[in-house]
Amino acid sequence: MRRRLGLRSVGEMRKLFDSIRNTGFRRGPERILGGIAGSLAEMTGLNVWLVRLLVLASFLLPVLGLGAYLIAWALTPWQDGSIPVEQVFGGRLER
Q1: Conformational region of residue 24, where left means phi above 0, alpha means psi within -120 to 50, and beta covers everything else
Q2: Among 43, 17, 18, which Cα is nearest to 28's?
Q3: How many domains does the chain have?
Q4: How many CB atoms lie within 10 A of CB 37?
Q5: Does 72 reside within a domain?
Q6: Which of 19, 21, 44, 81 is 20 to 30 A distant from 92 in Cα terms?
Q7: Residue 94, domain member (yes or no)
Q8: For residue 75, what are the domain limits?
């Protein structure tokens, strides 16, 4: 049973990471730190510096701002499609 659960978990993780990649949301090419603000600016069509200011302002919210940024950073793919959390689990999962 443990083996079956492990295979199922790998399959579910692969689906999750593939669905994140399929959204088309990538770290922006104009990045300073994590690229999240650049991605949001590109996606929304807003000025990248305005989005950076809004992201910094969100850090003033207790836990929510920084926590949401860290989650977005961990799950947002790089331009090549690699996802930081997926890399922690050993890179792209075998198909």
Answers
A1: left
A2: 43
A3: 1
A4: 26
A5: yes
A6: 44
A7: no
A8: 2-87
Confirm if 79 and 26 have CB atoms less than 8 A apart.
yes
User: What is the pTM for the complete model shown?
Assistant: 0.62
pLDDT tens digits, one per residue of 38-71? 888 888 899 989 988 998 888 888 778 888 888 8
For residue 40 the two structure tokens come to: 């949001």
Residue carrying structure tokens 């000025």 = 47
Contacts for 13-19: CB closer than 8 Å, 24+ residues apart = 13/86, 13/89, 13/93, 14/93, 14/95, 17/83, 17/85, 17/86, 17/92, 17/93
5-to-1, 2, 8, 94 alpha-carbon distances in Å: 6, 5, 5, 16
Tokens in use for 25?
Answer: 């949301």
58 inside domain: yes
Q: At what angle do helices 48-58 and 64-75 cross, to 10 degrees?
A: 130
Asked whether residue 29 is assigned to any structural domain, the reply reads: yes
